[in-house]
Design a protein that fits this description.
single chain; alpha+beta; 3 helices; 26% strand; disordered N terminus; nucleotide binding; nucleotide-binding; adenylylsulfatase activity; hydrolase
Length: 149
């Protein structure tokens, strides 16, 4: 994978992925787990994290493995929001980029809008190489080049 390999000693998201906290999981499989954000910014606000410790989006590369992981994270997030907020007309899916990420463990924000309170939208603005990067844009960035025979 892209990552930093071993579990980070004091990473709360690694603890959640190992199921060693009381955090209720909305989804769990061999690659990712999902749970509610403890400080929600929208009507529904979930996080999808890889089980493997990968610090940030900066640790992802143009590799099939990384592309597949982020695609799976996005699929899980979409499935959860469709299940739990079918009435929501607008969704946002993306990642905070360093130095604006809050936890050094890759995590996809899955938001069923509206933002609550409305000013929280500021946290999810795209600011080029800083700020929030939409999941689709990250997938474009890490999509492996097609080998030409």
């Amino acid at each position: 994978m892209a990552g930093a390999g071993a579990v980070a000693a004091s990473c709360i998201f690694c603890d959640i992925a190992r199921k060693s906290t009381s955090t209720a999981l909305l989804h769990a499989d061999d690659k990712v787990v999902a749970f509610q954000d403890i400080n929600p910014s929208a009507f529904r606000h979930y996080l999808v994290i890889p089980v493997e410790h990968i610090p940030t989006v900066k640790h992802l590369h143009r590799k099939a493995e990384d592309y597949s992981l982020v695609s799976h994270m996005l699929d899980v997030g979409k499935m959860l929001l469709l299940r739990d907020a079918p009435q929501a007309k607008h969704h946002r899916f993306g990642f905070h980029q360093p130095p604006l990420n809050s936890v050094d463990h890759l995590h996809l924000h899955c938001l069923a809008l509206p933002y609550t309170p409305r000013w929280r939208c500021m946290k999810y603005m795209s600011l080029g190489s800083l700020g929030f990067i939409e999941a689709d844009k990250l997938l474009e960035k890490i999509k492996p080049a097609i080998a030409v025979p």
